[in-house]
Amino acid sequence: MNPTRPWILLYQWAAGLCDTATGALLIAAPAWTFALMKLTVLPRPVAFVRFVGAFVFCVGFTYLWAAAGWPLSEWRAQWRITALIRTAAALLLLWQIASGAMERGWMAVLLTDGILAAFQWIGLARNWLDAAAQG
């Protein structure tokens, strides 16, 4: 077995479970989720947080859907799209935190999205998915 394959699978499931769970929590219990994330400002109306939660849930679900049912060789599009989404989210948060428009507690989300996006961009450039698919 190719040594890359287990790590790619672990990454795919972990990223999917984290975002899917976070999205579900933002939908079901936005105030509790913000408190868990150590965020003090809950946007109003709360329905907006739930809308964002639906988006986060769907991004996470793409990882799980690919891991559960797609051949590894076909994950490239999913990685490109989610890396783009994560890059955009990280850059937006960087701008908003730096300008003081959003509280510093959002740094955890900025770093998570930035690191996962970088991992995927590097993996795409180095053909990690192709290598793992051959294992």
Describe this structure in words.
- The structure is a single chain.
- With 135 residues, the protein is mainly alpha-helical.
- The chain has one domain.
- Helix content is 77%, strand content 0%.
- The chain contains 6 helices and no strands.
- The mean pLDDT is 94.
Largest sheet: none
Q: What's the tally of helices?
A: 6
What is the overall silhouette?
globular
Instruction: Encode the helix/strand succession as letters.
Output: HHHHHH
Percent of residues in helical segments? Answer: over 70%
Number of strands: 0
Percent of residues in beta strands?
Answer: under 5%
Q: Structural class from helices and strands?
A: mainly alpha
Number of domains: 1
Low-confidence stretches: none
Rg over CA atoms: 16 Å
Q: For this entry, what is the oligomeric state of its chains?
A: single chain
Q: First CA to last CA: what distance?
A: 5 Å
Give the rounded overall mean pLDDT.
Answer: 94
